[in-house]
């Protein structure tokens, strides 16, 4: 994370790293020495959309802060009081002016560098693209043209490509990034072939 909480939001005392016993054992966290408030540092939920049009193409967009040639999925933060489904429909509409007419969940992935958890959806849309000021350009790609990247939203895109009967092609999202997917995350294993699961005995 680029910044860290420094003061207690309850009493404004400077937070300190203090180890305490928790359900999982001894854990060091930012805690208030005056009122014992704890900063849990829970990940922030971020929504992502693989946006598909009626021609079977996926929408990729470039954020205004990204360098030229970098394109990704439509993403945004959940707001208080909304469901993930309502949130992703809102984000797609706000950022592209497209209306979501159907959606299904693809999965969730961690984005540890930003302390976020990504919740990804496949959405079908209609309408004309009108980008928000946050985005500067976009492109529609066929499943054959789409290149996935080896991090959270890239695996969501890979799910979509595979749902079209194609094997996803991976590449680097930014310069100097490895283009190879994490073998622990891709390809997906059927649960019965995952060593973390034990099959129950047959009766």
TrEMBL record:
<feature type="domain" description="Nudix hydrolase">
    <location>
        <begin position="41"/>
        <end position="163"/>
    </location>
</feature>
<dbReference type="Pfam" id="PF14803">
    <property type="entry name" value="Zn_ribbon_Nudix"/>
</dbReference>
<dbReference type="InterPro" id="IPR015797">
    <property type="entry name" value="NUDIX_hydrolase-like_dom_sf"/>
</dbReference>
<dbReference type="InterPro" id="IPR000086">
    <property type="entry name" value="NUDIX_hydrolase_dom"/>
</dbReference>
<protein>
    <submittedName>
        <fullName>ADP-ribose pyrophosphatase</fullName>
    </submittedName>
</protein>
<dbReference type="Pfam" id="PF00293">
    <property type="entry name" value="NUDIX"/>
</dbReference>
<dbReference type="GO" id="GO:0003824">
    <property type="term" value="F:catalytic activity"/>
</dbReference>
<dbReference type="InterPro" id="IPR029401">
    <property type="entry name" value="Nudix_N"/>
</dbReference>
């Amino acid at each position: 994370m680029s910044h860290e909480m420094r003061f207690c939001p309850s009493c404004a005392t400077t937070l300190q790293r203090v180890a305490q016993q928790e359900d999982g054992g001894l854990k060091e966290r930012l805690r208030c020495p005056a009122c014992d408030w704890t900063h849990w540092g829970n990940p922030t939920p971020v929504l992502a959309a693989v946006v598909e049009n009626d021609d079977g193409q996926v929408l990729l967009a470039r954020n205004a802060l990204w360098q030229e040639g970098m394109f990704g999925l439509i993403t945004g933060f959940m707001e208080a009081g909304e469901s993930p489904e309502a949130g992703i429909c809102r984000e797609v509409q706000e950022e592209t002016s497209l209306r979501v007419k159907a959606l299904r969940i693809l999965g969730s992935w961690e984005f540890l560098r930003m302390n976020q958890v990504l919740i990804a959806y496949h959405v079908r849309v209609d309408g004309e693209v009108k980008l928000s000021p946050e985005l500067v350009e976009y492109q529609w790609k066929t499943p054959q043209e789409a290149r996935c990247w080896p991090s959270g939203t890239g695996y969501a895109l890979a799910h979509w490509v595979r749902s079209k009967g194609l094997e996803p092609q991976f590449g680097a999202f930014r310069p100097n990034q490895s283009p190879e997917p994490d073998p622990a995350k891709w390809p997906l294993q059927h649960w019965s072939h995952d060593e973390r699961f034990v099959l129950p005995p047959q009766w």
